[in-house]
Amino acid sequence: MKKSPSISQFGDHGLIIRYSDEIDYKIHLQLDTVTNKVLKKFKKYIEGYSIAYQESAIYFHPEFKIEKKIKKITQFITDIVPQEILEDQKEIIQIPVCYEKPFALDIDELAQEKQIETSKIIDLHTSPIYPVYFIGFAPGFPYLGGMDKQLSFPRKASPRKSVAAGSVGIAGNQTGVYPNASPGGWNIIGRSPLCFFDVTKTQPSLLQAGDLIQFRSIDKKTFDHIEKQVELGQYSLEKIANND
Amino acid sequence: MIEVINPGLHTTVQDQGRLNHRHFGVPTSGAMDQHAYILANHLLQHQSLKPVLEFTISGPTLFFYAETYIVLTGAEFDVQLNGKEITHSSPIYVPAESTLAIGQAKTGNYGYLGILEGFSTVKVLESVSYHPSINPGAKLTKDMQLLYVKTQFQPLDFNARVIPIHDKFCRTRLDVYPGPEFDCLGKDDQEKLFNHKYFVKPKSNRMAVQLGNTPDLTAPEIITAPVQPGTVQLTPSGELIILMRDAQTTGGYARILQLTDHAMNSLSQCKIGKKEEVTFHKK
Questions:
Q1: B87, B113, B146: which is the final residue of a domain?
Q2: A79–B contact, CB cutoff 8 A
Q3: Residue A81, pLDDT above cutoff 80
Q4: Quick check: A62 and B224 CB within 8 A?
Q5: Structural contact between residues A150 and A124, judged by C-beta atoms closer than 8 angstroms
Q6: What domains can you pick out in chain A, each with its CATH number?
Q7: Do B20 and A47 touch (CB under 8 A)?
């Protein structure tokens, strides 16, 4: 099914492509596809863009007079046929996470409060395939969908002054990874040895909108091993086929 | 080479910003007053835009080892070169072994120091602009060294004279577009936004300007959506926040207005406090 987005100007050089007002992964995929098609078609006029749950913003070069071109872009989007929006089979990126001490700062508290065994928390967290809706909030920070509701837990009353890079946390109905060391109020249940944001790479963010990921539980020894490989630039991401 | 004797309150290397990495959650950053940044480059007759230093409230003290030309734009500060006052908005010759002392801001908030051929700071993700988790070295610290190109001097014909306009009315009059959630407000509430005088609250910085004396308006949170510098957010508790250059790329507050580029530059120089009355005008 194809839904039509609304298109509007956003400031001097911006354009917003907006779908419905609720979070829906299928509609998000349409947004992703349509945004990418606009990015490709108008590539030389585009300065940057960002994408969120149900809306994307495309920022054009100042010389490109957006108010004059908005009709043309709207027509281009309207003409995209539904078949083109079908999503391809995707790979699932495996994210190794060590759910042990000293990384899993809050897992015991979570287990106690929720009356779920720690091992069950790990099961619940590693089972789903999480779609990466978009990267926002901070460089490389992935907004993930699909967390098991049994794991929902309010953010900490007072945030920590510093949370280590790679920390995996839960806040409300969301789970996520801190790409850089930063202050934060999420409940930390583990840490990944991967580097989620590296400015020396052409694509600095490990993940991007449209990716599918799964967390995989590893022990401390494996964590140390992968961490070393990542440091030496010898680690290659593990991906498995999506059979859904 | 320049040696930083005193870094000042918050002095950073800036350019047009990191415009093409927003989809990775990277803020645009860049000079707060882009107009002053471009002007500094034009006055030094640069063929392309080169990095400048941005300082605020209290500027840096710098020691220049080699001769060069500099220019000061943006907010006016008390500035002395080897103990003598120098003029704003025109290129100044700096002899070798000079000390440049930039004191307190007299007008506006953000001052700029341009140097002939620009500072030789390494670009990270296509920009030199400071961001703590991208290029922490682009913020000045005591004793750090800054490099600039020692060019063979062609006799430069600097005839440019610029008279900065210090008209408060120009600076505080902000042209805006309706934002994506503008229509969620009723007609009367929309009008309230325009028939109102605001002021800049002290909490304001490179990430956001907070407005004081807000009208009695609120808006519910939205599903996290794209934002950009100049987005005016209205919070559920009635605060008005204008996102500035170091802001996040997505946000969850209602985006009721969007400043023009020109208004962004003006707002960056609006002084904190009730003396300057900020108003919105429909573009």
A1: B146
A2: no
A3: no
A4: no
A5: yes
A6: 6-85 (3.30.1360.40), 91-241 (2.40.100.10)
A7: yes
On whether residue B154 sits in a domain, the answer given is no
What CATH number does residue B191 fall under? 2.40.100.10
For residues B128 and B237, membership in a common domain is answered with no
Are residues B275 and B218 part of one domain?
Answer: yes
Domain boundary among B146, B176, B209: B146
Q: Looking at the complex, report in whole angstroms how far the Cα of residue B9 sits from the nearest Cα belonging to chain A.
A: 22
Encode pLDDT of A89-100 as tens digits. Answer: 679 999 999 999
A138 Cβ under 8 Å from any chain B Cβ? yes
Q: What is the mean pLDDT of residues B10-38?
A: 97
pLDDT of B95-141, one tens digit each? Answer: 999 999 999 999 899 999 999 999 999 999 999 999 998 999 999 99
- Contact flag A10-B230 (C-beta cutoff 8 Å): no
Using CA coordinates, name the residue in chain A closest to B230: A11
Q: Quick one: pLDDT at residue A84?
A: 63
Q: Could you give the number of structural domains in chain B?
A: 2
| A-B contacts (CB, under 8 Å) | 113
Please give the residue range of the domain that contains residue B186: 168-282
Partners of B131 on chain A (C-beta within 8 Å) are 139
Do B84 and B197 lie in one domain? The reply is no
The shortest CB-CB distance from B23 to any of A51, A62, A179 is to A51
Distance from CA of B264 to the nearest CA of A (A): 11
**Residue range B31-37: mean pLDDT, rounded:** 96
Q: Which residues pair with B101 in a beta bridge?
A: B61, B80
Q: Domain of B44: which CATH number?
A: 2.60.120
Q: B114 and B29, same structural domain?
A: yes
Distance in Å, alpha carbon of B51 to nearest chain A alpha carbon: 19
* A184-237 confidence digits (pLDDT tens): 899 999 999 999 999 998 899 999 998 999 999 999 999 999 999 999 999 999
Q: Cβ of A27 under 8 Å from any chain B Cβ?
A: no
The C-alpha of B176 sits at a distance from chain A's nearest C-alpha, in angstroms, of 8
Residue at B173: amino acid letter: R
Query: Where would I find the H helices in chain A?
Result: 25-41, 66-78, 107-114, 118-126, 220-231
The answer to whether position B54 is within a domain reads yes
B160 in a domain, yes or no? Answer: no
The beta-carbon neighbor of B25 closest among A55, A139, A199 is: A139
Give percent of chain B above pLDDT 70: 93
Check CB contact under 8 Å for B248 and A47. no
Q: Is residue B268 located within the same domain as residue B138?
A: no
Identity of the residue in B25, B125, B223 whose CB atom sits nearest the CB atom of A21? B223
What pLDDT sits at residue B45? 87
**B139 and B52 share one domain:** yes
The residue of chain A nearest to residue B246, with distances taken between CA atoms, is A138
Is there a domain that residue B232 lies in? yes
Query: CA of A20 to nearest chain B CA: how many angstroms apart?
Result: 10
Same domain (yes/no): B129, B212 = no
| Of the candidates B227, B230, B235, B224, the residue with the CA atom closest to the CA atom of residue B258 | B230
